[in-house]
What does this fold into?
Amino acid sequence: MTLGHPRVHLRQTGSTNDVARELAIAGAPHGALVTASEQTAGRGRRGRSWTAPAGRALLASVVLRDMPQLLTLRAAVAVARVCGDDAQIKWPNDVLVGDRKVAGILCETQGGEDWAIAGIGINVAVDPADFPAEIADTAGTLGLEPAAIEPLLERLLAQFAITLRMDPADITTSWNERDALRGAKVSWDGGSGTAGGIDEHGRLLVDSGVAQWALDSGEISLVRSG
Ligand code: BTN
It folds into this structure.
């Protein structure tokens, strides 16, 4: 099923995820798309904000009514594919190029509702000098021109339509092929160990030497990796 129809494009909005949520509640169909040139209250995971200079990032939220399992993994694989052959995914769903985060994904739903929102931000044409100081060491950009945003969006929607239909096992395989943490030391507030990919539920597998852990992204936040 194609994604991106109908589409609302806003020059400026608070958060495309919030607009998409309102449209979903009002009955927008599967695949409805909200994009913006600029967000004034862009949201990231775990209550963080997401900022990007006007007209320099792909800012998109898709309404989904068919909600397959592993939704954020499906979005991450689609985003990584359009960010390049060398793009990797850092668990649970940061997309990195050359160790820098170029894209983030925020999937949201509401208990009891039959919709989900997949919100995607990609730093397509952001000048590194414009990153806020707190993310200057970790954020990255694709280094393209603003004119590349629209073609990239088209490719992203096509890839996302593909990954939404893939078998769960193929999704975890594709995800693991781009795993940025495999073999890396990771730690969280409950332990530490060596990352070994994700399982069929999207949990990060970690071997501490004495125990195997399967970390759930809803409960665990990695505090350090290296
Ligand atoms: C993260 O890495 O923490 C997730 C960032 C998600 C940002 C995108 S930009 C489009 C959509 N609207 C939002 O407010 N957030 C997502």
In short: The radius of gyration is 17 Å. The pocket of biotin is lined by residues 15-17, 39, 42-45, 48, 50, 59-61, 94, 104-106, 119-121 (CB under 6 Å). Helices lie at 16-25, 71-83, 149-165, 168-177.
